[in-house]
Design a protein that fits this description.
Blueprint lengths: L3 E4 H30 L8 H25 L1 E4 L14 E6 L5 E7 L10 E3 L3 H6 L7 E6 L2 E11 L2
Parallel strand pairs: 1-2, 4-5
Antiparallel strand pairs: 3-4, 3-7, 6-7
Helix pairs in contact: 1-2
């Protein structure tokens, strides 16, 4: 069974979402199915079919979250240190073409959110940066061509 790396915050978020699905969404959809059943003929009951479809989606999400939690390898980033980029690091980079600065934390796949500055450990940029240090330049193949980024800071927040 392959471990799923995640930060403490990512684990807590996943656990909260699982609890919400089990305590709020699941009972809600069960009630919706019961309500739709009370309307009679199920073969032409759109509410019933929609509720059953939603129930299937919710149960799938619950199973997926439970699997990730069972395989979780929770990494407390605050206890990490070092000069090399690795999982959990917050890395500041400068795009060598545009001089744009960016800051990313390398996190587990399910907690990635580029708009919030969190990129997946399996993303091309993360894979290029892992093992590198401040001052090194990494090249990443993007749909628009190869981009070069200089690592300017590695933090453990």
């Amino acid at each position: 069974m392959e471990k799923v790396p995640m930060t403490v915050v990512g684990y807590q978020t996943l656990d909260e979402e699982l609890k919400r699905l089990k305590t709020i969404e699941r009972p809600s959809v069960i009630a919706a199915i019961a309500e739709a059943r009370s309307h009679g003929d199920l073969s032409e009951n759109a509410e019933y079919h929609a509720a059953k479809e939603r129930q299937g989606w919710i149960e799938g999400q619950i199973a997926e979250h439970e699997d990730k939690i069972a395989r979780a390898q929770v990494i407390d980033v605050s206890k990490l240190s070092g000069k090399q980029v690795k999982f959990g690091a917050t890395v500041s980079v400068i795009d060598e073409d545009t001089e744009d600065e960016a800051r990313y934390q390398i996190v587990g796949e399910h907690e990635a959110d580029v708009k919030s500055g969190r990129i997946s450990v399996s993303s091309p940029l993360s894979r290029a940066m892992i093992g590198k240090e401040v001052g090194e330049v990494v090249e990443v193949n993007t749909p628009g061509g190869t981009k070069a980024y200089e690592i300017t800071k590695v933090e453990w927040l």
